[in-house]
Amino acid sequence: MAQKPIVLRVGEDIKYNHDYFNNEFTKRFNVVANEEPDRASFIKALKDKKYGDFAAIYRPHFQTGGEMGQWDDELIPLLPASCRIFASAGAGFNWADTEALAKRGIWYANGAGASDEAVSDTALFMVLSVFRNWWRSQKAARTCDPDQFHAMHKLVGSISYNPRGHILGIVGLGNISKKLAQKARDALGMEIHYYDVVRADEATEKSLGVTYHDTLFSLLGVADCVSLHTPLNAHTQDLMNKEAFAAMKDGARIINTARGQVVNEDALIEALQSGKISGAGLDVHYHEPQVSKVLAEMDNVVLTCHNGGAAITTRINFELNAMKNIMEVVGDNGGYKGEPLTPVNKK
Fold it and tell me: Is 288 marked active-site?
């Protein structure tokens, strides 16, 4: 009987999809766990071929499996020629050089789709929060002080707006932001505009009722609230900088559920302090997990702990989809079988 292809698991073992793992995945593959606690020992293990000629790398949980650090030109050339795919939980992939993996003939597949509902809900919550100033009201209520209660009861009504009739500007029209567009349009009555480096097809634009802008600054000039949905890379780091904020409407709002470093933190603080930007909702942070103490003290800023996709349903599907991606790519003999369900790169 032929030996089953090896899958190297990085990070914690599966937690949710035991039936699929036992009845489908391990019937096809021999799963071995990385035992190295740090980058140096992991590099040595790869050089020594400790885990053999594995056909895939499997990361079931995006919050673990990062002990080896950045997957870059130091690590990737050490992977065996037999490696076909790196399948990871999570939507982000800024910690892995996907182009370098592609040059080695290795697919990188993320958990696209698994967190769409949860992250779009988070963005919708942020939109509502920055229009209605709910954080100010919640903060005052938690003091249990009648004077602060009355003061905020008076203030919030004089500085808040209904989202209906306002323009939501979306940067990056992907699966998450398409759901946000639909929710903000149908539930809140907002008008949706978007910018993306690749324009959506006519049918998609029509179904979502969205208006396209061919430049970022064109979108920023009309949006009452901007929601960011772009991956972090060399082109998008500090995308929202001093010039970008200057191009926005006076009193506009900004939401970031993408990656912290898409927004230049100093520029955002300056725009908030000057009143150019009237509010911000940030699920992600520039120096994460360190949150800016300046932003934390601002009453017009809503902050969460990168919990956009934090739902059990998301975790279950992240774990399952990573296994399914490997099942699609690696054949019984360890060779290429097909393409992943959610590829990020092209080998």
Answer: yes
Residues 46 and 83 in one domain: yes
Q: With respect to residue 1, please indicate whether it lies within any of the assigned structural domains.
A: no
Indicate whether 109 and 237 sit together in one domain. Answer: no
Nearest to 192 by CA among 217, 175, 176, 213: 213
CATH of the domain at 178: 3.40.50.720
Identify whether residues 84 and 159 lie together within a single domain: no
- The parent domain of residue 36 ranges over 6-114+313-329
Angle, alpha carbons 198-201-205 (nearest 5°): 105
> Rounded CA gap, 127 and 123, in Å?
6
Looking at the structure, tell me whether residues 35 and 126 fall in a common domain: no
Reply yes or no on whether 259 is catalytic: yes
pLDDT in tens, 174-224: 999 999 999 999 999 999 999 999 999 999 999 999 999 999 999 999 999
The one catalytic residue in 59, 259, 285, 315 is 259
Q: Are 137 and 244 part of one and the same domain?
A: yes
**Catalytic one of 132, 136, 306, 315:** 306
Does residue 339 lie in a domain region? no
**CA-wise closest residue to 84 among 269, 338, 341:** 338
- The total of structural domains in the chain comes to 2
| 32 and 180 fall within a common domain | no
64 and 76 together in one domain: yes
Active site annotation includes 235: no
- pLDDT digit string, tens, across residues 85-134: 999 998 778 889 999 999 999 999 998 888 999 999 999 999 999 999 99
pTM: 0.86
165: left (phi over 0), alpha (psi -120 to 50) or beta: left
